[in-house]
Design goal:
binds zinc ion; 9 helices
């Protein structure tokens, strides 16, 4: 009896799936895979500390090309001050004042020499806020770079 019922089941119609539905599913799958990879990055990875959730990065105010490049270099953590040694084959540079490895993180948040410049330019206290896309953060960061004489 059960076997007879099983054979009477109407087949599912084989209709083509619209391309838009497939594209949407592909985008969801790619985004999900991307988010998983991003969240599995080692904690030490600089980009994840700045932007915990992957999303498009924009600059709110219109920036000059040089400012936009500076912002992007800071966000990826690679400025000439901290990475030129790789091209020259030199040792990792250290902050002369603090005697720690020179990094964007150190310069923007912890360097004792730059404390006054951070306060004067009202630089936010987290890397995520400093490198965010808000007009206030970008203005503060650009002022800080000028005050600290840091050229990305
Ligand atoms: Zn320092």
């Amino acid at each position: 009896m059960a076997a007879k019922e099983a054979t009477c089941v109407t087949p599912i119609p084989q209709e083509p799936i619209p391309a838009q539905d497939l594209i949407h599913l592909l985008r969801l799958g790619i985004t999900s895979s991307w988010n998983t990879q991003w969240s599995n990055l080692p904690q030490i990875h600089g980009l994840r500390a700045i932007q915990p959730i992957p999303r498009k990065w924009t600059s709110s105010p219109p920036l000059k090309r040089k400012e936009e490049i500076s912002l992007r270099l800071l966000r990826i953590g690679h400025i000439s001050l901290t990475h030129t040694h790789l091209l020259r084959g030199d040792l990792l540079p250290t902050c002369i004042s603090c005697n720690v490895p020179l990094s964007i993180h150190h310069l923007l948040l912890h360097c004792l020499t730059l404390t006054a410049a951070r306060r004067r330019t009202k630089l936010p206290t987290s890397l995520q806020d400093i490198l965010s896309s808000t007009p206030e953060a970008i203005s503060s960061l650009l002022n800080f770079l000028t005050a600290a004489k840091i050229t990305p």
